[in-house]
Write a structure and sequence with these properties.
single chain, 271 residues, alpha/beta, six-stranded mixed beta sheet, 11 helices, 10 strands
Amino acid sequence: MSNPITAAAAGAVLLESIENGVALLVMNRPEKLNSLNNELASALNQAFERIGKNDAVRVVVVTGAGRAFCAGGDLAMIGKGREARDSKQLEPVLRAGMGAVLRMRMMPQPVIAAVNGAAAGAGMNIALAADIRIAAEDAFFGQNFAKVGLFPDYGGTYFLPQLVGPSKAAELFYIGDMIDAAEALRFGLVNRVVPGAQLESEVKKFAEKLAAGPPIAMRAVKQTLFGSEKDALSRALEAEIQHQMRCFASEDCLEGIHAFFEKRAPKFQGR
């Protein structure tokens, strides 16, 4: 999606604007498919905290710059940390992501994920944390943690079974393959699918329709739907971090990352 951000903000990893009561957040690392590093994860966390307190904002839209929504964690950064056995390369990204998705779910305003391309790993789970997901026809989704020996994070183990049931969630987690937008719609992962060229206009029209609605009633609906989840979601997010850090320390993680960059099938040994 395009956005009215000024050229002065072009170097920022997260672009932000507010227009007609709609806050637009654009993950802005297009050359990295908007993969998550410390800076971007922290920026998302801070933005959701700040916007959640802004009564002038009635709806939030989150999307990605370029041809991806978010490709998940920055594997170059994660691989560097794993080579050095340095958990400090990964845990801050996980902690910031924990805060971001919890704030998305608990903030008073409805959140729309406009999925304009690949939504993989943690990127898919950011989309799942939104109230509503609208995807371009050429978008695709994947819980591809298993491909690199890692554990689902950013709330995936909490959100995905709610949407597709535990059995289908298990399949998506275990195999880690990507699915297209049409399949995501059939599974109930997204609310609607639109032609890519129309994504921006359709999301803008929908967001402005929500923004014109009664904010007291809509915020009460969101609180009723999701407010009681806070403790359970917090526990799930913390458990994900603990599992992820253990997987990060494994030889399987190192093998998975090497295989990814070498474009070959990994050979996992359970160590």
